Predict the structure.
Amino acid sequence: MVEFALSLLPFLALLFMTLDLAWIFFGWSCIQEGAREGVRWAVTGSGQVETALDSHIKQVVQQYSFGFANASNVQVDYYPSTGYSSSAMPASIDGQVGATAAGNVVRVTVQNVSIGTFGPIFRTVTSLPLSASSSDVMQ
């Protein structure tokens, strides 16, 4: 009985740690899939009004992320295909005429998605913030 009790505790600790890590990886892969599908939707929607396209992209991200992401977690940015700034970061063309034109780059970012764990794996009981991003050239 004592041997069983001594071997059960480490086994359960390992089991719950594995479940926690699997849950975190599942959450991250879901928001990554949502970002990927949002970019896929955006690529085929070139030429639309930016605000309408952005709201459709956010709906697609919510649908494909299994409820992990909300519209407030999703950010859609448009960049020109050329013309990078000196800091090697492209200058965003959000809100400008032609932002959704073919040839521009669209980036969908899902950030600050909090996912709770079953136990304090990383010595914290707070939620872990996850983020994912995907980008492609609009057609």
